[in-house]
Design goal:
187 residues; alpha+beta; 4-stranded antiparallel sheet
Length: 187
């Protein structure tokens, strides 16, 4: 195909326009946004989380992992040089590991503004669940283990609710139940 000035002139004119002239999309009125209520719920959850956890959700990343024996709550500072967030994460996770082991789930209730699924069962089976805090390079994790099938189900429900509310995108199924990766092809 032969390119002529007739083909390239419209593109050149578009590129010559200032950026605001090219991208003038009308601002959406929050009152007419179909997702406004959901956005407000997410914003309130993030604000309560920042206040109760002691670190900013915008400076950190949460992961909630579901495993064959329980799962893990991981939090890391996004910036490796952000020692303030790292230290706040470590303090928070060490504290909640102890509270959860004692059956105290007041922090997630305050953050989520509700009792999360699985919490009543985890309290009832608290003696069969281990909550172990571990430091990580940019934060920490709480590793959750149990051999009690009812407690395991409750832990998974709790982590699934956390995944949904915090919008982490983590897998909501038991990783051990997922199909194993294919074997490498030998050449």
């Amino acid at each position: 195909m032969r390119v002529t000035i007739a083909h390239t002139l419209p593109l050149l004119l578009l590129c010559a326009l200032p950026a605001p002239a090219r991208a003038q999309a009308p601002a959406m009125d929050p009152a007419t946004c179909p997702m406004h209520e959901q956005h407000m719920k997410e914003q309130k959850l993030d604000e309560r989380g920042d206040a109760h956890m002691g670190f900013g959700h915008d400076r950190t990343t949460h992961h909630f992992l579901i495993t064959e024996t329980g799962g893990a709550i991981q939090v890391a500072a996004n910036d490796p040089a952000d020692s303030e967030s790292r230290d706040q994460i470590r303090h928070h996770l060490a504290e909640i590991a102890g509270k959860f082991a004692a059956g105290d789930f007041s922090a997630p209730k305050a953050i989520h503004d509700r009792v999360l699924p699985g919490v009543p069962e985890m309290i009832a089976h608290k003696d069969s669940i281990t909550w172990r805090y571990e430091e990580m390079k940019r934060g920490g994790q709480v590793v959750i283990t149990t051999a009690d099938p009812q407690a395991l189900s409750a832990v998974h429900e709790f982590l699934q609710a956390q995944i949904a509310d915090h919008r982490t995108g983590d897998a909501t199924e038991n990783h051990a139940l997922l199909a194993p990766p294919p074997e490498p092809v030998k050449q």
